[in-house]
Amino acid sequence: MVRLVYSVVLLSVLGFASQVVNGIFMDKLSEKKLCADEECVYTISLVKAEEDFNAPDCRFINIKKGEMIYVYSKLMKKMGSGEYWAGSVYNDQLGTVGYFPSNIVDEQQVFKEANKEMNTTDIDFFCE
């Protein structure tokens, strides 16, 4: 019985490890973010893309001019870098969340103010 439990635990850990190996932790774009709530789960706003954006790496999402994007958090500016927001394209079937520059969108509707300052974590910049 002990061997069976040990085997199940070992396989679970190995299974989890193989999932982590399939992803990569990328450099942080910011140390802080603004959210609408303490857990950063509420949608802040709906924005419209004013131009195309091609994702330079897996932290970002591709956006086409005219697409609507739900915004979930707003990264706070670092010295020397632009401001990025996290969101997902409205018509994206997979619900992929990624970053995009805030200066290429126009905020159409605000659902809840982003007034909770939170620390970013490594998982905010994890890519699968």
TrEMBL record:
Residues 1-23 form the signal peptide. It comes from the Eukaryota. InterPro entries: OTOR, SH3-like_dom_sf, SH3_domain. Residues 42-110 form the SH3 domain. One of its GO terms (biological process) is cartilage condensation. Pfam families: SH3_2. Keywords: SH3 domain, Signal. The keyword DNA-binding does not apply. Gene3D superfamilies: SH3 Domains. This is Otoraplin. It comes from Latimeria chalumnae. The gene is OTOR.
